[in-house]
Structure prediction request, 493 residues.
Amino acid sequence: MGFKEGFFWGGATAANQYEGGWNEGGRGPALTDFTTGGSVKEPRKVTWIDKDGNAHATPQVHFDDALPEGGDHYACLDDYLYPNHEGTDFYHHYKEDIKLFADMGFKMFRMSISWSRIYPKGIEETPNQEGIEFYRDVFKELRKYNIEPLVTIHHFDTPIYLVEKYGDWQDRQYIEFFVKYCKTVFTEYKGLVKYWLTFNEINNTLNVINMFGNGTTNEDYKKRLTHLHYQFVASAKAVKLGHEIDPENKIGCMLGGAITYPHTCDPKDVLLNQQTMEENFWYCGDVQCFGAYPPFAKRIWKEHNIIDLDITEEDLKVLKEGVVDMFTYSYYMTNNVTTHETEDTVQGNFAAGIRNPYLTYSDWGWALDPLGLQYSLEKIYDRYRIPLMVVENGLGAYDTVEEDGSIHDDYRIDYYRPHIEAMSAACDNGVDLIAYTTWGCIDLVSAGTGEMRKRYGFIYVDKHDDGTGDLSRRPKDSFYWYKKVIESNGTDL
Ligand code: P53
Prediction:
């Protein structure tokens, strides 16, 4: 039992945090290029210029922030570092990196395409050929080692031109721009890429404000729900088109694993948790897996006083026709919710307040909860009955390079072991799990804090928060351990 034969073991990355080469090869700037470095205490900022030419830096609220009111355009300012510009430079190291992934025995590699490398502004008639060729080379390199690419089409990095002109997915035209981009990549990479994900952590839009956005107004909710609706329609159209272009294509949704527990057995907490999961997780999953808004959507709209979301009859038809082939999600932690007062809290990046007394926490305040992975896999499979992938999971931690260059990251191995056991148990319980790609299999920039020192990799990259480092790569102890895990199909842990 355990993992089935042909299970896709691998690792995951995203262009905005890993690729670099932000102003090379004809690439246009994306929103993530204007986000500064930060930390848990100092949130990342987005930097922009107002109509009078004054510079501003405002804390980032969401990965699809629109240009703040009064803003004229986004700009990089001299006083800040922008770690995503270089990432950890996959752009110039992809051959070396893919070779290292192959050494570990990867069967699958998750990466994202930078939209603005294909369409620099998002609106052009024809794509940027140099960008097209870059990814073609990458996919060929992966194929050389029989590594199956798993490609995220949108991972936080909307072209800045679109953000400045059309806001945070507040315009219907986004759908057509996105679908054109999808058509290009499906056509160009036909035969090279078979597994696709449309929007990374699509539910973050709601999840992030519900868990951490105190005082969010109904107007704000309406923006988020509009943003989501346009993304649902764009994603469904992409799924349909992807199947037409190549019937071999398998296209999945991707959700942030916003899994919550009731903090007490008070039925009020149990019900609150159910409604929280509906809003933060199932709302997005149901639309993409069932092809229609769930019954509880009406409650959510009513609670936020939303009466006239821009949903057309044609949209509803599109959603039905664009049901995904597989469900994928990221899993890092669980959070608790309660109707009761509680003093026992954790402070972290994107970690909600209440401390779960049965769990321990990472250095960034994320609850370590391997059984929550089994629990969520079984819950999700029970609901959707389609193949599942865990496309992100991992431990952000401080690593120390010893004098001889070795990195003894046994804490990372200790993190992975029970998570893999939990997945294996879920498989034994009938879950059709087909892939596991660990987050940041090679060190990259943290999305939440913009730090380098929050490392996830099996491979260390010499790059630091102050922007220094020679970008050299070296395996950590976990590299050899994961190789063994893959070789034994998840039995030698
Ligand atoms: P970092 C918050 C909570 C859960 C997942 O996150 C999240 C975030 C955003 O920080 O994002 C996903 O880098 C995301 C990746 C991200 C990864 O989790 O903050 O898909 O881009 O890097 C880990 O430690």
Notes: The two ends are 15 Å apart (CA to CA).
